[in-house]
Amino acid sequence: MTTLLTGGTGFVGAAVLRCLMEAGHNVRALVRPNSNRLNLSGINCEIATGDLTEPESLRRAVRGCEAVFHVAADYRIWVPDRAKMNRVNVQGTVDLIRAAAEAGVSRIVYTSSVATLRLNDNGLPANEESHAELSDIIGAYKQSKFLAEQEVKRLVADTGIPVIVVKPTAPFGPGDVKPTPTGRLVLEAVSGRMPAYVNTGLNVVHVDDVAAGHLLAYEKGIVGETYILGGENRTLQWILETVAELTGQRPPQIRLPHWFVTPIAYISASVARIKGSGEPMITVDGVRMARKLMYFSIEKARRELGYSPRPAVEALRDEIEWFYEHGYVAQKKNKKYSA
């Protein structure tokens, strides 16, 4: 059986690739011509050159496949051009799923995001039934994932295309090549460039557990259903204190109010636009999102899929180790670990 995977060079996609290969799938990875292929090193999979913005390349890639795992996405918190992101995340998803349906694919796992759910004002974990409206969603990336998921659900309802939707939370672990926004958070903390923080919370999960959840969704998930793939709900303070403990450093002691950080984010965004390259040090959308605890429940995935993630500390430890091993940050001599 041939399985098409998109996003195999990326963070979550590479973890899914490893998981599929270990499970015995013959994987065909859709890879853009200019992609960084570090995460493909040592992996014996078929490569199909293509792009989500090129429908014909998707039709070629999916030909002869029985399964599709669509993990690829343009994942950035700050984007100067929303249209380009939507072209990849929304229209690219529609084009791929249509191509898969035309090719007779029997099962598709689509990687959405918990960003499409409505957070609770009281800080209690949201679940798969926490439905949101577009107006609830903050930021270009999250809005693009919301719109893409709406299109996927419409295709399932109208045509019966066999799609299962999974929603990762905040993954950490090995293979964060770019790195992602969560990876940059860890890098800044490890490098000692985060003297202060704001009060917020994330659901921390090991990227390999997210990958295992994808395979479980493929094997046990119900077509048309969605499953949150997460780990432990943790405050940003806990994350930074854990990173500090794992690296033998002193955690940041200053907690800044959101109102203080907001104008800094606007200034940072203005500087980035003037420069015309790079991302702001702090994004306005990031500060807005941090006003709520981004906590989620994984009980549905536990109950229906048998999903069982490892402790959050292991995700942070493995990400730090990977950054050390690949030269993203210099390893300090006083490093220590705790589990």
Describe this protein's structure.
- The relative contact order is 0.14.
- A seven-stranded parallel sheet has the order 3-2-1-4-5-6-10, with helices on both faces.
- The protein contains eleven helices and twelve strands.
- With 339 residues, it is of the alpha/beta class.
- The N and C termini lie far apart (39 Å).
- Residues 334-339 have low confidence and may be disordered.
- 42% of the residues lie in helices and 16% in strands.
Short précis:
With 339 residues, this protein is α/β, with parallel strands linked by helices. 42% of the residues lie in helices and 16% in strands.
Would you count the extended β strands for me?
Answer: 12
Q: Roughly what percent helix?
A: 40-55%
Low-confidence stretches: 334-339
First-residue to last-residue Cα separation: 39 Å
Largest sheet descriptor: 7 strands, parallel
Residue share in β-strands: 15-25%
The overall pLDDT, averaged over residues, is: 89
Give the overall silhouette. Answer: globular
**Rg on CA atoms, Å:** 19 Å
Order of helices and strands: EHEEHEHEHEEHEEHEEHEHHHH
Strand order of the largest sheet: 3-2-1-4-5-6-10
**Helix-and-strand structural type:** alpha/beta
Q: Tally the helices.
A: 11
